[in-house]
Amino acid sequence: MLLRSMFAQNYRSLRSIRMDLSGINLFIGENGAGKSNLYRALQLIQAATRGRLAHEIAAEGGMLSSLWSGPRRESEGPVRIRLEAELLDQERAITFRYRVEAGMRPPKAAAGFPFEPQIKAEELSVETGTRPVTTMKRNGPAISVRGPNGRMQDYPEQALTSETAIALLGDAGHYPEVGTLRRAIDGWRFFHGFRTDRSSPLRAPCLAVTAPMLDEDGGNLAAVFATLVHTREDTVDLDRAIAAALGGAGLVVPEPGETAEFGLALPDFPHRVFRPRELSDGQIRFLGLAAALMSYRLPPLIALNEPEASLHPDMLPPLADMIAEASRSSQVWVVTHSELLAAAVGERCGVRARRVVRQDGATWIEGMRLTGIIDEEE
């Protein structure tokens, strides 16, 4: 399913922003403009469907750190983080819209811990061409769902303040619309840079288990390469990308035993293979990106946050080639500081980078209307 639009309100620098999205979404801007907050808001939508929204907000400093702290009107009421996503099932022409709101515990409330994020409201609606139909709604702990007769009815179990209703109902297994949306969003993958220190998961052997796609921390990198080499038996595009970025280097992947391993053969040293622990930060990071973008089975959405970090400028055109190739079968979201990478991706994919700016203290996109549509003339 295609992520058609997203909305974020009162989250960090995102005062209120709605964006229409396409197959490839390219964002560029200065430090502090809020590019990573857009990326993070998308991650939080996934966290909500997994039942971990409160945990994720708490882990990044809690509601006080996550809430918009700029000017507000008194008439707006209690401040809440509000996130929305609209997904289109293109084969069946069905639109799913999911909204979730989180806020602080009221001063005199008994439920929940004093400073934990609390889920206040949720709603899931489905549109099949006529009008949206609400299939799930949550207000506080109370949940209502659309029953077999087409009417909304109370769900017998109330949600805890830290739980999301979409996760609770999804685990119950009786609500197909909820399950469909959760599976679609659960498949998204976010790659917020890779660790490259000596203890990085990218540098370690991993269990020899067939790996259709890369884990977000890169911990199954060797298994992804082994799957491509020994299961697909087609690494032409991968070999071309690695050679172009790493000075003619070639990937070496022995037949896995109990563990999967890999190395690089470098043209200047034809008689030995360099193991992951010997590779530079840029080399190992590029290999992680290659696995993320060229795995056996690509995720429905691939989000890259500043993928150019630690990469030599000569590596950026091959990276742009891989992004363009991945965009043929996956929706791609790229956040970058690099004008060179943005230009290379834009040229290969026929898109223009969306420039992220601060407008009256809030994150905004140059040339975007309040409806979320980009004025191409801008």
Number of domains: 2
Q: Let me know the largest β-sheet.
A: 8 strands, antiparallel
Oligomer: single chain
Q: What's the end-to-end separation, in Å?
A: 29 Å
Overall form: globular
Mean pLDDT score: 92
- Count of alpha and pi helical runs: 10
Order of helices and strands: EEEHHHEEEEEEHHEEHHEEEHEHEHEE
Domain Endonuclease GajA/Old nuclease/RecF-like AAA: 1-45
GO molecular function: ATP binding; ATP hydrolysis activity
GO biological process, one term: DNA synthesis involved in DNA repair
Biased composition (Polar residues): 127-137
Protein architecture, described:
With 378 residues, the protein is an alpha+beta fold. Helices cover 27% and strands 27% of the residues. The chain has 2 domains: 2-25 and 34-189 and 356-374, no CATH class; 194-305, no CATH class. It has 10 helices and 18 strands. The strands form 4 sheets. The chain has an 8-stranded antiparallel sheet, with helices on one face. Helix 1 runs antiparallel to helix 2 (53-59), helix 7 (236-245) packs antiparallel against helix 8 and helix 8 (281-294) packs parallel to helix 9. 42% of the residues are buried. This is ATPase.
